[in-house]
Amino acid sequence: MRLEGQTALITGAGRGIGRAIAVAFATEGATVALAARSAGELEETAQLVRDAGAEANTMMADVTEEYQVQAMVDRALARYSTIDILVNSAGIAGPVGPLLENDVGQWVRTVQVNLIGTYLCCRYVLPVMLSQNRGRIVNLSGAGATNAWRDMSAYCSSKAAVVRLTETLALELEGSNVRVNVLGPGSVHTRMWDEILEAGTAAGNLDLQERGQMVTTGGGASIDRAAELAVYLASEESGDLNGRLISATSEDFPFAPETLRQIKDSEAFLIRRVELG
């Protein structure tokens, strides 16, 4: 099993992609600490993890609150003494509609959950990983990181920022045995997509309506494929891959060693401006 003996902390684990990753990790032998805001959903995920043969511990936490993130990490350490893997899966779609019509509080809340939450979790888990000189961080992005979607400024901005945060953190971690990468899951049918479809319809956004209908009627990306990519990025299979955005829908992983080297040398997996020749 690829994650045997590893302890993983997964935020946003109550449902959707976070839940799928938790079960996939359990299947691969990891002990899983689950964090989210809903106790009922967390317990459902925990039972699925236990059914897969792994130990699960649940923790209520709002990743936008520093003291709650710190308490979450402290509790995981008190139980397991280590955190080998961090998956930042907590995220929201935010307000849908023209920026000038967005509720300011909802817009800011989206950045707080998607970006600040990722930062805070990295901030409090990294000292543990650096002290043990090993660790893997998997940050969840989305199509909004590489494509501008009309009427979704908060989501796209925050997800693009997660990618740049990851790239910057990877540079700071050079010389250590801690790796951080971004997982692009694709348009997976989750509750978030149901909310996007509903909001897009209310806003009269035909593009979002069409995209949402495609996803919710079976045309979306595979949640199992996204979870499998998370396992790959969290395991030794991904080698020294660091600071890259890897798509579950576009890339043919697991990568051969020579392909990993090519990815590390390529700017195709970064947010970069391409200079004209």
Task: Explain the overall architecture.
The protein has 277 residues and is α/β, with parallel strands linked by helices. It has a single domain, classed as NAD(P)-binding Rossmann-like Domain (Rossmann fold, 3-Layer(aba) Sandwich). Helix content is 49%, strand content 13%. It has helices at 16-27, 39-51, 66-80, 104-132, 153-172, 191-203, 206-219, 223-234, 257-265; strands at 7-11, 31-36, 56-60, 85-88, 135-140, 178-184, 245-247. It has a seven-stranded parallel sheet, sandwiched between helices. β5, α5 (153-172) and β6 (178-184) form a beta-alpha-beta unit. α1 runs parallel beside α2 and α3 (66-80) runs parallel beside α4. The longest helix is centred in the middle third of the chain and has 29 residues, at 104-132. The protein is globular. The relative contact order is 0.13.
SSE run = EHEHEHEHEHEHHHEH
> How many individual β-strands?
7
| Global outline | globular
Instruction: Output the structural class.
Output: alpha/beta
Uncertain runs are: none
Q: Any idea what the CATH architecture is?
A: 3-Layer(aba) Sandwich
The percentage helix is 40-55%
CATH-defined topology: Rossmann fold
DSSP summary: helix tally: 9
pLDDT averaged over residues: 89
Query: Which percent range describes the beta-strand content?
Result: 5-15%
Any idea what the CATH superfamily is called? NAD(P)-binding Rossmann-like Domain
* Biggest beta sheet summary: 7 strands, parallel
CATH secondary-structure class: Alpha Beta
Give the C-alpha Rg. 18 Å
Q: Biggest sheet: strands side by side, in what order?
A: 3-2-1-4-5-6-7
Q: How far from one another are the termini?
A: 47 Å
User: How many domains make up the coordinates?
Assistant: 1
